[in-house]
Write a structure and sequence with these properties.
GO terms for molecular function: DNA binding. The chain is mainly β. About 15% of the residues lie in helices and about 45% in strands. The protein has 2 helices and 5 strands. The chain has a 5-stranded antiparallel β-sheet with strand order 4-3-2-1-5, with helices on one face.
């Protein structure tokens, strides 16, 4: 499920304030979770891959995906909490 426009506008603030961040060593990715203000059973998820290699630009920190997951199904077992 995709993010609403107002949630996409929050991305910069979420990344700056980062209250819930995990490291996924299997995929070399950072996962940021933030509250879904309209559906308390869901959380919003941002996946960022540091040092992602783009052919034309070289290495960068790339947003891989944005979406929603059920609050109780975040799949945190294999993740290391950073914040």
């Amino acid at each position: 499920q995709g993010l609403r426009v107002e949630e996409i506008k929050e991305i910069v603030k979420v990344l700056e304030e980062a209250k819930e961040v995990y490291w996924d060593s299997a995929n070399n990715s950072l996962l940021y979770f933030f509250e879904d203000k309209k559906d308390s059973s869901k959380v919003n998820k941002i996946i960022i891959r540091p040092d992602y290699n783009l052919k034309k630009f070289g290495k960068t920190n790339a947003i891989i995906t944005l979406g929603k997951v059920d609050k109780d199904r975040k799949g945190l077992k294999h993740l290391k909490k950073i914040r």
